[in-house]
Design a protein that fits this description.
The protein is of the alpha/beta class. It contains twelve helices and 31 strands. An eleven-stranded parallel beta sheet has the order 1-3-5-7-9-11-13-15-17-19-21, with no helix packed on it. Strands 2-4-6-8-10-12-14-16-18-20 form a ten-stranded parallel beta sheet, with no helix packed on it. The chain has a five-stranded antiparallel beta sheet with strand order 22-25-28-29-30, with no helix packed on it. A hairpin with a 5-residue loop joins strand 26 and strand 27. Helix 2 packs parallel to helix 11. It is globular, with a radius of gyration of 28 Å. It starts with 9 loop residues before the first helix and ends with a strand.
Length: 633
């Protein structure tokens, strides 16, 4: 080093000296009072901040401290510098995500693999199939048990089977029982002749799926696509079909048992089958027994010729949910649309038909046993339309449906998820819901780093650039959803803040409750999905009506919590026992909301417990990795 070189900054000099007296694991060899933690790591800074801000001597909560950034002291300094420059951060994203333990999707390079003849893909994962199988004549490719039982799955199929003739593709058991799944089919099977694409048991039991089909089978001739048992029992995701089958001829598409028994799944069909000829689409048992499904059909079958569309047992016995048909079949010719057992559910949703069949010629439409809460705007009244058993008020049919399906619909409100306060006493035997955390594991970022990240809807493009997120990617949706939740106005009486560091969480909790606070969570997940017995039950703050700050995870690349304080609650802790042996298996934290007047009438608590907003109190357990803060006793 040149003698004229400037000396390193004081902080870096101190850090280098400190590293010299530390062992390889980053812990202090001697003389520290920080639990052995290197004070220059994010966790070391956090422990000192806790002692400074919290004015009591309760032990630091290990379950919260364990979520601190795992960055070493050296990486902490390096990435703090990189975070000042978004271009540098973007360029070093994958290394940063790995070391900071974040949720980042891998960057997939185009696949250069060459495969001749029929191929079976098993035990593959995170692949990019580009221009694969183009102009293939006959043959069959199988994707079986592909990326199964994985955490983060990202696969891209681009220009796959383009221009093929009689070529078959089968996706069986694809990405089943995985966590966060991002899959993209772009110009898949375009200009193909004949052949069939089969999706069977695809994304079964997946948490947070995001699937996109863009220009899928565009311009195809006589090609058949079947989706069977597709995204069944999935949780909280989206499927998008854009320009699917557009300009196709005699295309056959069948969706059977699509999205059944799923929770909060959104499907978007945009320009689906537009300008197609002789299309035959069937949606059978689509969205059956789902919870809050959201389906949008925009310009579906517009300008098509002689199309036949059938919706049978579509969204039947679902809980709430909404469907929107905009410009469906607009300017089409000779279309036949049949809705049979459409939207008949225990807890009615909403259906909107806007410009349905507008300027169409020779259209036939049949609605048989169709649900309530419908709106037709600018509907083609000159078409041949029949309405049989079309409901506009509660009927005896619906009354019997309530009796036969309420148990099934209530599956979306697990037994024990909500309960009355009177059950919180020693000796109570009650069901416990599944309180396991189903989100991907992530860590907080240190405040000095995360404060340099943009976090606003107005900065969405910058955020997407940092995390390498495409417009319709899982990351883009994850970011958008979190920003919307964080930026929405608080409910009446609610004080809220989204926190991206433990320091921010401490600041928010102490601003509401004062500096003498204690944070609690349920110890483990023991007892989940089973019967439990309550042992000793104790009310926090002597069981008085009090304030608390509850914090719930949001899905985001780094650990992000939605923290809020609502008025009039009581917080309890209880020993949880095995009801047979009476031995203690867990220690649970429960919170009871005494004022529910601002809650929605279709909130799951009222489906489970009856009555409605403002008429009952509602209690629930604090789930794994969620937490509640209260003034220290």
């Amino acid at each position: 080093m040149s003698s004229n070189a400037p000396p390193p900054p004081p902080f870096l000099r101190l850090l280098l000296i400190f590293i010299l007296i530390s062992d390889v694991g980053g812990r202090i060899v001697a003389g520290d009072d920080n639990g052995g933690e290197n004070p220059f790591t994010p966790k070391g800074f956090l422990l000192r901040y806790w002692k400074k801000q919290i004015s009591n001597d309760f032990p630091t909560p290990e379950f919260l401290i364990s979520k601190a950034s795992p960055l070493t002291a050296v990486d902490y300094v390096g990435f703090t510098k990189i975070a000042n420059d978004q271009n540098s951060l973007t360029a070093n994203l994958q290394e940063f995500c790995a070391k900071a333990k974040l949720l980042c999707f891998p960057d997939l390079a185009p696949s250069l693999e060459k495969h001749d003849g029929e191929v079976n893909f098993a035990n593959y994962k995170n692949q990019n199939f580009t221009s694969y199988g183009n102009n293939r004549l006959g043959g069959k490719d199988n994707f079986q048990s592909y990326t199964e039982d994985d955490n983060v799955v990202i696969d891209t199929f681009r220009r796959y089977s383009r221009g093929g003739t009689g070529h078959n593709d089968r996706f069986t058991g694809y990405a089943s029982e995985s966590n966060v799944v991002d899959q993209s089919f772009n110009t898949y099977g375009t200009v193909a002749v004949g052949g069939e694409g089969q999706f069977t048991n695809y994304n079964d039991k997946v948490n947070v799926p995001n699937l996109r089909f863009t220009s899928y089978s565009d311009g195809g001739n006589g090609r058949k696509q079947t989706f069977t048992t597709y995204t069944n029992q999935a949780n909280s995701g989206n499927e998008g079909f854009t320009a699917y089958g557009k300009n196709g001829n005699a295309a056959v598409n069948a969706f059977t048992s699509y999205g059944n028994d799923s929770n909060v799944i959104g499907s978007g069909f945009k320009n689906y089958g537009e300008s197609g000829n002789g299309a035959n689409d069937t949606f059978s048992n689509y969205g059956f027994n789902t919870n809050v499904p959201e389906n949008t059909f925009q310009n579906y079958g517009a300008e098509g010729n002689a199309a036949t569309e059938t919706f049978a047992n579509y969204r039947e016995q679902a809980n709430v949910g909404d469907d929107t048909f905009t410009s469906y079949g607009k300017e089409s010719n000779g279309a036949k649309n049949n809705f049979v057992n459409y939207g008949k559910s225990f807890n009615e949703g909403t259906d909107k038909f806007i410009s349905y069949g507008k300027d169409a010629s020779g259209e036939e439409a049949s609605f048989k046993i169709y649900g309530m809460n419908y709106t037709f705007k600018e509907y083609n009244k000159e078409s041949s339309t029949t309405f049989a058993s079309y409901s506009n008020e509660t009927s005896s049919i619906e009354a019997s449906m309530v009796a036969t399906t309420s148990k099934r619909v209530n599956k979306w409100v697990e037994p024990g998820k909500f309960f009355r306060e009177a059950l919180l006493k020693k000796g109570t035997i009650m069901p416990m819901p599944d309180i396991r955390d189903k989100m991907p594991q992530r860590s907080f970022l240190p405040r000095v780093i995360v404060s340099k990240f943009p976090f606003s809807s107005s900065k969405l493009q910058e955020i997407k650039k940092i995390f390498h997120a495409g417009d319709d990617s899982s990351t883009a949706k994850m970011v958008t959803d979190a920003l919307q939740e964080c930026e929405r106005a608080p409910s009446p009486g609610e004080t809220k803040r989204c926190v991206a560091s433990i320091e921010d969480m401490i600041d928010f909790a102490t601003s509401v409750l004062g500096r003498s606070v204690k944070v609690r969570t349920t110890d483990t997940t023991a007892g989940s999905n089973g019967e439990i017995m309550l042992g000793e039950v104790k009310g926090i703050n002597s069981g008085k009506v009090t304030k608390s700050v509850s914090c719930h995870q949001s899905l985001y690349p780094y650990l992000l919590y939605y923290c809020h304080s609502v008025p009039k609650v009581r917080v309890y802790e209880a020993d949880i026992l095995d009801p047979t042996t009476k031995t203690k298996i867990n220690h649970g934290i429960a919170i009871c909301h005494l004022d529910t007047t601002s809650w929605s009438a279709d909130h799951g608590a009222f489906i489970a417990l009856g009555l409605g907003p403002g008429k009952i109190e509602v209690c629930h357990w604090i789930f794994e990795n969620d937490m509640t803060w209260a003034a220290a006793d």
